[in-house]
Amino acid sequence: MLDLLARDTWTEEECRWLLHYLEHTPGTELRGYLLERFRRQGITVPDSALQARLLDRIHERIRPQGETPVVPLRRRPWKTAAAAAVIAAIAGGAWFFTQPSGKQPQQLAKQATPADRKDVLPGGNKARLVLANGRTVSLEQAAEGRISGDGERVNKEDDGLVYEPSTHSGINKLITPNGGQYRVQLADGTIVWLNAASCLQYPASFNGSDRTVALTGEAYFEVAQDASKPFFVKVNGMTVQVLGTSFNVNAYPEEKSFTTTLLQGAVRVVAGKRQTTLAPGEQSVLEQHSGSLRRAAADTEDAVAWKNGILTFRNDELAAVMRDISRWYDVEIIYAAGIDEKIHVTGAMRKQEQLSQALKILELTAELHFSVQGRTVTVSK
């Protein structure tokens, strides 16, 4: 999420996406996400009566007489007081949000109405498991219960896979497609959330002197404590040595850099002869082109927003934003002539949005036009 409340002014684009959510977005995930950020910055949420009055005043300022929202905002900065009022109304206004919380994307997809069926639905819990014997299991189709595989003790449960310790240490693979995500509890108790278009390789049980897994794509780890067996994540020329518990690794091959963001504990990131040790609230950035490795302050909520049901963009290049959209909605992105893929985009959206709604939010923030033909999205002005 943006550190907007610390600024003197808000940009037009920032106001646009906030107002869009205020008036059009159901659900509670974004509300909870914003609310936590406001509490950390000492923002007091007004009571419902004041929220209503603030909202009326905001609408009077931004909507010409007789027109309905959402309308383009004037080309001028907005003062913090008005912007904070918008945010406070969102954060405190549970009465604006009607979608029950806790539902997974695939559950919402099942409720789509006939009018929605031409739209592209969001991703959900989709993955395939490759066992050590080479057998592949589609986890969407597999029934809950034990998945047998020459000694692997793995169960499919409602919220993902759960491994039990065993004598079998054959390598398994969990692979998510575009439009997929999945959760797995490894045999040592470590929990991994795997993002779309990602692959995690790991032994069915950790019977050696260490615990080593390999990752392509993005995953969030909560590592079980075991001082006698260090935990390592191998990522295409980079190793994350876990000295603590909770961290996120973003290592898509098509991105410019690999980032490791630490929430709790400590990790050491090693890339060739370079290494750095992170403290909570820091991240390492490994540039793929130059091989440079640096440490920086991190916004941990942004780093793991994907796991909590939010797609968030903080001054990111358009091309990177559209790659996120492509991975989550399993669509192809095409750019019309004259589109600058390096322009920067700021905003946030729920991962439960259907594609048309997600693109509408981007149109409001980036002043671009998106057209959809089947599973192809064309970006134009």
TrEMBL record:
A Pfam family matched in the record: FecR_C
Superkingdom of the organism of origin: Bacteria
GO molecular function per UniProt: sigma factor antagonist activity
Positions of the FecR protein domain: 174-268
Domain Protein FecR C-terminal: 311-379
PANTHER family documented for this protein: PERIPLASMIC SIGNAL SENSOR AND SIGMA FACTOR ACTIVATOR FECR-RELATED, PROTEIN FECR
Name of the protein in its database record: Iron dicitrate transporter FecR
